[in-house]
């Protein structure tokens, strides 16, 4: 899933009012997690990535930090 604009909805904890903002942020999501891309205050490209548990487990496995046992069945 991907898009070039996201809508952020927040609820003020003091007034309980809900505010909605449309932001020019690119959004990409797949089974590995999601990535948000936009610009920082200087107008430079910026991105943040949120990895899923599946992706984190893959990274742990390929870096040799996972369980020290074979996944193959006898």
Description:
The structure is a single chain. With about 70 residues, the protein is mainly beta. It has one domain. About 15% of the residues lie in helices and about 45% in strands. It is built from 1 helix and 6 strands. The strands form 2 sheets. The chain has a 4-stranded antiparallel beta sheet. The protein is elongated. The chain starts with a strand and ends in a 12-residue tail after the last helix. The model has no long low-confidence stretch (mean pLDDT about 90).
Largest sheet descriptor: 4 strands, antiparallel
Spatial separation of the terminal alpha carbons: 39 Å
**Count of helices?**
1
Widest sheet: strand order? Answer: 1-4-5-6
What is the helix content? Answer: 10-25%
Beta-strand proportion: 35-45%
Summarize the structure.
This protein is 14% helix and 45% strand.
Topology:
Blueprint: E1 2-3, E2 6-11, E3 18-23, E4 26-30, E5 33-39, E6 45-51, H1 53-62
Antiparallel strand pairs: 1-4, 2-3, 4-5, 5-6
Write out key terms for the chains shown.
74 residues, two-stranded antiparallel ribbon
